[in-house]
């Protein structure tokens, strides 16, 4: 029997090896992550938080108070027995006048030889600490005032003791009518300085104005030769005083109905409430702050920086460095399809030799009552949009607008999000919450908008 040669061998069918498939998937995943690692950018992040900024404004004001300058009645040498800026009564000795100069020389020698008391050292230490805490390099005149304040402290300490040490010589000079001590005429605050603003009223300043740059203060030092009719000291009478500030019309309208304003003195952070009134003179607006407390704290100041403590603005608080801007095409809302907010783009197809209409779904970044804002991701200037169920068209790029925003990086890449800034200072901005196309609390945004580009991958 012959062999059957008609048997046909079939090839085994291709069988998919699941292990190989999984291997290739893992390889692709690894390569993608390696690529992402080397292309992602390490960006400083900021988590958006609810916060507030006080809408406060700092102004330099001029101080007006009831002041009296006392003058020498004789020629001679003057020495002081009070601290500059201290309260005195009508029985306190303010200064002595030595018409010959012998007692004044003895006082000068005591200044060189006498040790300071512990009380004086402690007082000087406190003044130095206070000066260093509030030092402003832009106001060098404060250093000169501080030097004179220390000199006044030393003179007070030594001259008080000198009245006892030199009591016999002083008694002899008084008997010879060549030396006498002068008390304050009234209770008040004694200042050993003048500045030619004494006696000026609020009305005088409103009428004639004032010049910060030309201001000069004359310090009255101890052991100094004076002539009759020269100033020897100044006294502040009473506790009432006024600060006059130049303001703009907008703030004048805001404060016009207010009777009081909370203020903070920038020098030492002292906060108080002042009676307020808005004044207008020669087309300029002024804020008059009337106070009954704190006078002695600023007795040696003529100009003072004050912060008007106004309302606080609340919202999402973000760094100013995170803010950027972006240009958008504005498209009328009636040109979007109702179902999916799409656009019908009309283009001419050369191969088919006819116009075709295709729908795109652009990202909407912002909306007004009449317009949607889109970018150039899917369209460009000059593209034609056909109005749904109409032959009307709109040319993209006919109108554009710029929006402020930040780069949201929640998804690992930068996405522009529009913001509405309610208020900002040099460091932070407060933006509106719960906006349709904006950011929300706890979102992560790029801290520095200038260090990143839109759609750029971010290292987590």
Summarize the topology.
Elements: H1 18-39, E1 45-47, E2 49-54, E3 57-71, E4 76-80, E5 86-88, E6 93-98, H2 102-113, H3 118-133, H4 141-165, H5 167-175, E7 179-183, E8 188-191, E9 193-194, H6 202-208, E10 218-219, E11 224-226, E12 231-247, H7 249-255, E13 260-265, E14 271-281, E15 284-291, E16 303-309, E17 312-319, E18 324-332, E19 343-349, E20 354-360, E21 366-367, E22 371-374, E23 384-386, E24 393-395, E25 400-408, E26 415-418, E27 421-424, E28 428-431, E29 444-446
Antiparallel strand pairs: 1-29, 2-17, 3-12, 3-16, 4-6, 4-11, 5-8, 6-7, 8-12, 9-10, 12-15, 13-14, 13-16, 14-15, 17-28, 18-22, 18-25, 19-20, 19-23, 21-22, 23-24, 25-26, 27-28
Written description of the protein model:
This protein is of the alpha+beta class and 460 residues long. It is built from seven helices and 29 strands. The protein has helices at 18-39, 102-113, 118-133, 141-165, 167-175, 202-208, 249-255, and strands at 45-47, 49-54, 57-71, 76-80, 86-88, 93-98, 179-183, 188-191, 193-194, 218-219, 224-226, 231-247, 260-265, 271-281, 284-291, 303-309, 312-319, 324-332, 343-349, 354-360, 366-367, 371-374, 384-386, 393-395, 400-408, 415-418, 421-424, 428-431, 444-446. The strands form seven sheets. A six-stranded antiparallel barrel has the order 3-12-15-14-13-16. A hairpin with a 3-residue loop joins strand 27 (421-424) and strand 28. Helix 3 (118-133) packs antiparallel against helix 4 (141-165).
């Amino acid at each position: 029997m012959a062999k059957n040669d008609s048997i046909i061998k079939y090839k085994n069918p291709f069988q998919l090896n699941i292990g190989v498939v999984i291997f290739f998937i893992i390889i692709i995943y690894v390569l993608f992550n390696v690529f992402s690692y080397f292309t992602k950018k390490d960006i400083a992040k900021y988590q958006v938080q609810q916060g507030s900024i006080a809408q406060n404004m700092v102004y330099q004001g001029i101080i007006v108070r009831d002041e009296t300058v006392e003058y020498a009645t004789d020629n001679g040498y003057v020495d002081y027995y009070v601290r500059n800026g201290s309260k005195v009564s009508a029985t306190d000795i303010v200064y002595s006048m030595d018409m010959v100069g012998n007692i004044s020389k003895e006082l000068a020698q005591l200044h060189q030889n006498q040790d300071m008391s512990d009380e004086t050292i402690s007082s000087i230490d406190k003044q130095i600490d206070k000066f260093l805490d509030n030092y402003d390099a832009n106001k060098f005149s404060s250093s000169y005032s501080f030097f004179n304040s220390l000199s006044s402290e030393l003179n007070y300490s030594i001259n008080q003791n000198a009245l006892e040490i030199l009591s016999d010589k002083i008694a002899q000079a008084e008997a010879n009518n060549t030396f006498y001590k002068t008390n304050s005429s009234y209770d008040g605050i004694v200042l050993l300085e003048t500045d030619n603003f004494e006696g000026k009223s609020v009305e005088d300043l409103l009428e004639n104005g004032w010049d910060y740059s030309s201001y000069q203060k004359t310090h009255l030092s101890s052991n100094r030769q004076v002539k009759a009719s020269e100033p020897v000291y100044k006294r502040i009478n009473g506790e009432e005083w006024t600060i006059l500030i130049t303001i703009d019309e907008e703030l004048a309208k805001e404060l016009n109905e207010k009777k009081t304003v909370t203020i903070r003195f920038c020098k030492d952070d002292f906060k108080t409430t002042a009676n307020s009134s808005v004044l207008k003179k020669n087309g300029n607006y002024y804020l008059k702050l009337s106070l009954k407390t704190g006078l002695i704290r600023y007795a040696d100041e003529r100009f003072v920086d004050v912060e008007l403590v106004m309302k606080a603005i609340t919202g999402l608080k973000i760094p100013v460095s995170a803010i950027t801007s972006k240009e958008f095409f504005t498209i009328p809302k009636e040109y979007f399809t109702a179902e999916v907010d799409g656009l019908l783009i009309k283009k001419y197809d050369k191969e088919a030799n006819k116009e075709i209409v295709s729908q795109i779904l652009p990202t909407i970044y912002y909306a007004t009552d009449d317009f949607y804002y889109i970018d150039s991701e899917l369209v460009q200037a000059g593209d034609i949009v056909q109005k749904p169920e109409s032959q009307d068209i709109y040319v993209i790029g006919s109108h554009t607008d710029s929006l402020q925003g930040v780069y949201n990086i929640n998804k690992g890449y930068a996405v522009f999000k529009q913001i509405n800034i309610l208020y900002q200072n040099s460091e932070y901005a407060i933006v509106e919450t719960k906006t349709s196309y904006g950011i929300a609390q706890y979102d992560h945004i790029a801290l520095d908008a200038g260090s990143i580009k839109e759609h750029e991958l971010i290292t987590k």
